[in-house]
Amino acid sequence: MTKDIKAILANSPAVDQVGAEERVARIQSRSIKNESKVQGLKMILNMIDLTTLEGKDTPGKIKQMCYKAQHLHDSIPGLPTVAAVCVYPSMVKIAKESVGNSGVKVASVSTAFPSGQAPMSVKIDDTKFAVDQGADEIDMVISRGKFLQGEYNFVFDEIAQIKEACGKARLKVILETGELANLDQVRKASDLAIHAGADFIKTSTGKIQPAATLPVTYTMLQAIRDHYVATGQMIGMKPAGGISSSKLALHYLVLVKEVLGEKWLTNEYFRFGASSLANDVLLQLDKINTGYYSSSDYISID
What we know:
By secondary structure, this protein is α/β, with parallel strands linked by helices. The chain has 12 helices and 8 strands. It has one domain (3-296): TIM Barrel (Alpha-Beta Barrel).
């Protein structure tokens, strides 16, 4: 381990788990006025990385998702597009062609997602292939086994090498917090990823439970805040997995505003990794517009 990494980890503070949970509980107890709710729901839609990461993904499924990313619900006026679509590297070219000039980004997972269990050469090739196919963003997974063994230098170098392979693509570093045991480890991994070159830090792959939680996200946001105070550099945040309700997503926005401020309330610096969240947001907006709830069959599942 290099001296710099030792210093990084030495400066990672212990996390008060009780305090984090109490802060989150206070946020969840708040009510949100209807006008602010509409604004927040549209903001959420524009922060979503609409995602499909299944072995059964086909070109047709990707094209349908990309269409939805640009046309969330044509009968509800004033809707934004989502921020990005997130796919496997083999589907990047199809996604890129499908989103065209809409402004919707194409994100690709890489580095042997979701396990990360592959040689470094494979992870670099995986990343370069996705970028060559047109990916605007790369969502990489760290080697959690190495991290939990205390091989922090390996994880730091891994992130730095993938960052270099990204070229101009932005790098989101997935910590897979459900495998990191406690909030102290989450904070340590967050600091390591930020210093290694992450443009975003991301909670989860969505393949492990628990995935994103508010206390974990609060811990990661504090790492981002401390880095910003020390350096002036803004790092993005992406909770992913398990966020399927509008109410919960609004709580995440309140948390971001309180910890980091309004500058982070754009899709440049905050995303939701989700496959079903958009549908619940659309149903909530339709309820506000019409006064009644529509069936979930009213919204396309893709």
